[in-house]
Amino acid sequence: MEPNDQGKDQGNDQGKKLLNLNIVSSRSQHRGFGSGVLDLNSVSSVIIDGDVAYLDMGAMHAKSKVEKLIRFSTDKSTVPDGRRCWVVWVTVDHKEDGSKFYAGVTACEMLIDAEARKGWKILADHVNRMDAALKRKLMVEGLNETEKTALKKCLVEHNPAWWDASDESLKQALG
Q1: Domain segments of the chain as ranges
Q2: Is the pLDDT of residue 7 over 80?
Q3: Strand 138-139, strand 100-113: pairing
């Protein structure tokens, strides 16, 4: 799709506008179609599985590597043999000088039993924490030291400059 084609229904001859995900700045006077919706282009998802953390954009639609073929329940007791995994929502933002940094980082717990093809997660928590990441919140209190170390390694290796430009509270939270 070309950038000029956004907001147009490709299969509709009438050129009907579709809902796009975009941020409308508070400084903007735009109040037309789609105003007030969020741009999810600044959010990425990191999966933490044991002592390994990796980017997996499939988590945006609950189709990450660990979530595929898993039937989820909101009842934790249905997954007694599940291993603990995390979806971490990471928002990247720009500073006034134009440099990028990790602005919001929030972690959501899941239990995965791949053999039984069962899992546990609270979808509302995942959505609320994605929203919190977009709002530059830091919520990593549930991660153990191994998981924090894996997440830090992933973020630093992905872009050391972004890590260096990030707030000290993130660096302290992840050790």
Answers
A1: 1-37, 42-174
A2: no
A3: parallel
